[in-house]
Specification:
mainly alpha; elongated; 2 strands
Length: 115
């Protein structure tokens, strides 16, 4: 069995659409992906609340950008002072195991309270 270029492109498109559906349905509507949920992580805004729809959308788009940049947005967390990814910074959110995280998260690198 062999694939021509058109069927390869169709497979790539179907995979991308499936990934986009998975990604946006869990992050935009549910805040956490199944992997984060399974590991017991929660996404919160800098005030310690579950992020609202606008922040979740920014986070989802930022995560796509983090991945599109060869994963650099995710790897950034290893060098970041607060271990935040690009999409965490863009959306003013963070990931924690404790759903009762500190009332306000103040990233030191920003030098001020988040809006």
């Amino acid at each position: 069995m062999s694939f021509d270029k058109r069927s390869g492109a169709g497979f790539a498109l179907a995979t991308a659409l499936l990934f986009a559906f998975y990604f946006f349905s869990y992050i935009f509507y549910g805040s956490e992906t199944p992997g984060l949920q399974w590991m017991g992580f929660h996404v919160l805004d800098y005030d310690g609340n579950p992020p609202r729809a606008g922040r979740r959308l920014v986070r989802a788009l930022g995560a796509l950008l983090s991945a599109a940049a060869l994963g650099l947005g995710y790897l950034w967390a290893m060098a970041d002072e607060e271990a935040l990814t690009w999409h965490d910074r863009m959306s003013k959110t963070f990931v924690t195991r404790d759903p009762r995280a500190p009332h306000r998260f103040r990233p030191r690198a920003m030098g001020r309270d988040a809006d």
